[in-house]
Specification:
single chain; alpha+beta; 63% helix; elongated
């Protein structure tokens, strides 16, 4: 099969001219942007002579092999009457067009949100780990040193400083996470940090659980925790469904705190 015949066969199997938005090629693949992916005959493409494989991604990618992909692409854009985005647009435009064609699923949005929260903290996590590692190493090397045992001297001070720097981040990791999460969701960072404190600081949880002056029995605390879980569940469902904005969630949480006498 000639390149011209292959180009026309591919065009037929992807749904014809009306279904093709644009096309481009890389080293081994003809990449086709389609209007409706369901119109493409994927099994037929895979069975076509000269086609080495088909990859379904942001674009429909027909694997043709080195050199051949570019030649078929040049013929395909003429047959389909579309532009070759590899030559008529910059790589930035090409990337934007591919992203626009991607389906933004709830899973992708969730992963992107998690990444936006934790990626900015990676340098601090690495630095904290290094400081803790150095502190541990110094403790082992100078374990039998007299001045180290007496808690004096340069190496003892250095070991304690490294431990301090390492713990300064990791010990309050939840707070940093809460602050970053609040920024990502468009809420007040200080409130995000305060909510994060409640996850591990008992001194913060206890006054949050019940109104001031109330006798705190085990049943009271269990009921308060249950109420907070239900509140969080409602707010989270409202945010994910789009019924509530991040600001709405913050205002609702503030209203609950005011009801417990914890905010003025």
């Amino acid at each position: 099969m000639t390149n011209q015949e292959l180009s026309r066969k591919i065009l037929e199997l992807v749904g014809g001219k009306k279904n093709v938005v644009s096309a481009t090629s890389c080293m081994t693949r003809l990449r086709i942007q389609l209007k409706d992916r369901s119109l493409a005959n994927i099994p037929g493409l895979k069975a076509t002579e000269g086609v080495l494989g088909v990859v379904e991604d942001a674009t429909l990618q027909v694997v043709l092999g080195p050199g051949k992909a570019r030649k078929v692409c040049d013929l395909f854009v003429v047959d389909a009457g579309v532009q070759n985005v590899s030559t008529e647009s910059s790589w930035q435009d090409n990337k934007a067009a591919m992203k626009a064609g991607q389906k933004d699923s709830p899973l992708k949005r969730g992963l992107r949100t998690i990444a936006n929260i934790f990626i900015p903290m990676i340098p601090a996590i690495i630095a904290a780990g290094l400081f803790n590692g150095i502190a541990s190493l110094l403790g082992q090397i100078f374990a039998n040193d007299a001045s180290f045992a007496a808690q004096t001297g340069f190496w003892f001070v250095l070991q304690n400083l490294c431990s301090l720097f390492g713990a300064a981040f990791l010990s309050y990791f939840a707070i940093y996470t809460g602050v970053n999460a609040a920024k990502v969701f468009g809420a007040t960072p200080a409130l995000g940090g305060m909510i994060a404190c409640s996850l591990y600081d008992g001194r913060f949880v206890r006054p949050l659980a019940m109104p001031r002056g109330h006798a705190r029995s085990a049943e009271d605390i269990a009921g308060a925790i249950s109420a907070y879980v239900q509140l969080f569940d409602r707010l989270l469902k409202g945010y994910l469904s789009g019924d509530l904005s991040a600001k709405d969630v913050e205002l609702a949480y503030r209203g609950d705190l005011r009801g417990r006498g914890l905010l003025i």
